[in-house]
Amino acid sequence: QVEVVESGGGLVQAGGSLRLSCTASGRIVSINAMGWYRQAPGKQRELVGIITTYGTANYVDSVKDRLTISGDNAKNTVYLQMNNLKPDDTAVYYCRMQSNLNYWGQGTQVTVSS
Predict the structure, then answer these.
(1) How crowded is residue 44: how many other Cβ atoms within 10 Å of its Cβ?
(2) CA–CA gap between residue 103 and residue 15 (Å, rounded)
(3) Which of 6, 27, 53, 70 is least buried, going by the fewest C-beta atoms within 10 A?
(4) What is the pLDDT of residues 93-108, one digit of tens each?
């Protein structure tokens, strides 16, 4: 059984920063990529960015100047550093671990106040 757990969400004022973490544990075959997604109220879940186990990261254009993904392959952990947060960044942030299957976490709430 595989468990994926996100942490680090919370309430922050606009312009502030947060760092999210996500760790996979259990019987997981080698991870190929780790990604962050978010879902705002009333909207569909959208991709934020993905990092491969080789360290190559890609982001959606709307966040790439403010958000940075990094990974620790040895720990099956991925991080999302978010700077200069905006109210539009308010969402539940989900982590996806991609191996032979896709494993999702339960999400962590990020709320940015104006």
Answers:
(1) 7
(2) 31
(3) 27
(4) 999 999 989 999 999 9
